[in-house]
């Protein structure tokens, strides 16, 4: 076994973050841009002691777990990212900054907090006064007039659900968007949205780079499902798990108060089951948790129906939590439904909760025609999406916004910010657009879920 005192980190691959100076100059031009001293130097609320400002040498490791026994190989090379935070020298003169903020896609707790903190951070930390909100998502760049924002206007936005700027899906027209950014004179663009929005941000960044524009583009990944890869978690997730408790508690009361009662709760989670998993762990009243990462089945030995029958005989009631993306391949579809897409380009999912409720009722009527049975289906999706962020997510949204501002002011572009192993980092936006955070059903968390619920593993013999 290796001696831990002799361990050294080598062979690190630092992921490149584009700086405006990387592409702004034509071939043969001197690659230098005027820089400015960070105004935080003179900000009375900050103490810029040694170590306050970060340098390119400050990095965050993606994998910070090392097996000293050598039994399991760590990824080679070790990936690393630039650490997020203020830089001593900045590229943008605050007096000439014209920033645009846009929210795209579905609602998520914390959207208004991110907007508020972007405005407040630009205003208070860097003295920026031209900050604009783009209404109605990507189409708002070319369809609506920008809304001038200020410190006072956004003061209480963190207490509101939804997005004051309004949002929409679709409407992505690359040339119209970049032309509008140029026409309005925006030189900083803050894009808040999910994976589809981040794919759009990649295209905007690439087009800005192709046109050699002095514009910084940054993404702040938003998905209540927590399915964004690389980062520890996405904002709004913890609020969603907290709010899901109310639905599960209601389902438990309904099920417990009936003869052979089942409480069925459908939670968000199109491609991943993180909300369902963490809601199950934190509630403890759930008898079975179904997520997209497992292929459950209804009939036969080890199936869901056999398990529910056993649980009803044992306790007289059961609570079933299902993520919206679970079981989609089992639900009958018409030919048109098989290829249907929403405005963001995502497959349209059918209602697994309604389908499961119908299947359970048919099963009971078939096998227990003369016995009482009650099933209550609760879908809190829009109730959860529309609430304000809780305290933890509010704090998180503030750090995301400020991290984004520091990176943009330093001249970085084409990146997103987020925590990796608890430390905030700058990650290339194209990496985030492609990375997915799936539930690892071989991980201890899923084992914990099964030990809490005693549910089957749905592996056919």
From TrEMBL:
Its EC number is 2.7.1.11. It is found in: Cytoplasm. InterPro entries: ATP_PFK (IPR022953), PFKA (IPR050929), Phosphofructokinase_dom (IPR000023), PKF_sf (IPR035966), PyroP-dep_PFK_TP0108 (IPR012004). GO terms for biological process: fructose 6-phosphate metabolic process. ATP binds at residues 106, 169-170, 194-197. It catalyses: beta-D-fructose 6-phosphate + ATP = beta-D-fructose 1,6-bisphosphate + ADP + H(+). The keyword Transferase applies. Residues 99-406 form the Phosphofructokinase domain. It is an enzyme of class 2 (transferase). Pathway: Carbohydrate degradation; glycolysis; D-glyceraldehyde 3-phosphate and glycerone phosphate from D-glucose: step 3/4. The keyword Coiled coil does not apply. Substrate binds at residues 223-225, 268-270, 324, 382-385. Mg(2+) binds at residue 195. Allosterically activated by AMP. Keywords: Allosteric enzyme, ATP-binding, Cytoplasm, Glycolysis, Kinase, Magnesium, Metal-binding, Nucleotide-binding, Transferase. GO terms for cellular component: cytoplasm. Its cofactor is Mg(2+). The record marks 196 as: Important for substrate specificity. The active site is at residue 225. NCBIfam families: PRK06830.1 (NF005301). Homotetramer. Catalyzes the phosphorylation of D-fructose 6-phosphate to fructose 1,6-bisphosphate by ATP, the first committing step of glycolysis. Belongs to the phosphofructokinase type A (PFKA) family. PPi-dependent PFK group II subfamily. Atypical ATP-dependent clade 'X' sub-subfamily. This is ATP-dependent 6-phosphofructokinase. It comes from Nicotiana attenuata (Coyote tobacco). The gene is PFK2.
């Amino acid at each position: 076994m290796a001696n831990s005192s002799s361990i050294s980190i080598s062979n690190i691959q630092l992921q490149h973050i584009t700086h405006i100076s990387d592409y702004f100059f034509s071939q043969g031009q001197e690659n230098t841009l005027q820089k400015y001293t960070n105004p935080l130097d003179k900000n009375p609320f900050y103490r810029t002691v040694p170590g306050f400002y970060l340098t390119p040498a400050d990095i965050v490791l993606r994998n910070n777990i090392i097996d000293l026994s050598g039994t399991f190989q760590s990824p080679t090379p070790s990936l690393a990212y630039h650490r997020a935070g203020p830089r001593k020298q900045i590229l943008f003169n605050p007096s000439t900054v014209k920033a645009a903020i846009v929210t795209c896609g579905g609602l998520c707790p914390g959207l208004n907090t991110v907007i508020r903190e972007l405005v407040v951070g630009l205003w208070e930390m860097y003295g920026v006064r031209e900050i604009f909100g783009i209404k109605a998502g990507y189409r708002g760049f070319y369809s609506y007039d920008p809304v001038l924002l200020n410190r006072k206007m956004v003061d209480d936005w963190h207490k509101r659900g939804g997005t004051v700027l309004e949002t929409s899906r679709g409407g992505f027209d690359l040339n119209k968007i970049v032309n509008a950014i140029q026409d309005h004179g925006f030189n900083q663009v803050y894009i808040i949205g999910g994976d589809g929005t981040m794919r759009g941000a990649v295209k905007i960044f690439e087009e800005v780079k192709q046109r050699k524009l002095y514009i910084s583009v940054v993404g702040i990944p938003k998905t209540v499902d927590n399915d964004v890869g690389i980062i520890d978690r996405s904002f709004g997730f913890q609020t969603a798990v907290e709010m899901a408790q109310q639905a599960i508690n209601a389902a438990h009361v309904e099920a417990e108060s009936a003869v052979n009662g089942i409480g069925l709760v459908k939670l968000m989670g199109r491609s991943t089951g993180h909300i369902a998993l963490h809601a199950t762990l934190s509630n403890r009243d759930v008898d079975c948790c179904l997520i997209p990462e497992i292929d459950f089945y209804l009939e036969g030995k080890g199936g869901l129906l056999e398990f529910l029958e056993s649980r009803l005989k044992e306790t007289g009631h059961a609570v079933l939590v299902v993520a919206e993306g679970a079981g989609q391949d089992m639900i009958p579809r018409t030919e048109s439904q098989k290829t249907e897409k929403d405005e963001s380009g995502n497959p349209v999912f059918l209602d697994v909760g309604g389908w499961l409720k119908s299947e359970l009722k048919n099963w009971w009527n078939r096998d227990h025609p003369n016995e009482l049975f009650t099933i209550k289906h609760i879908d809190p999706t829009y109730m959860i999406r529309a609430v304000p962020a809780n305290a933890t997510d509010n704090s998180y949204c503030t750090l995301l916004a400020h991290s984004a501002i520091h990176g943009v002011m330093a001249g970085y572009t084409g990146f997103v910010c987020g925590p990796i192993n608890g430390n905030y980092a700058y990650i290339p936006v194209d990496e985030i657009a492609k990375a997915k955070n799936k539930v690892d059903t071989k991980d201890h968390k899923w084992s914990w879920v099964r030990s809490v619920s005693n549910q089957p593993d749905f592996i056919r013999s």
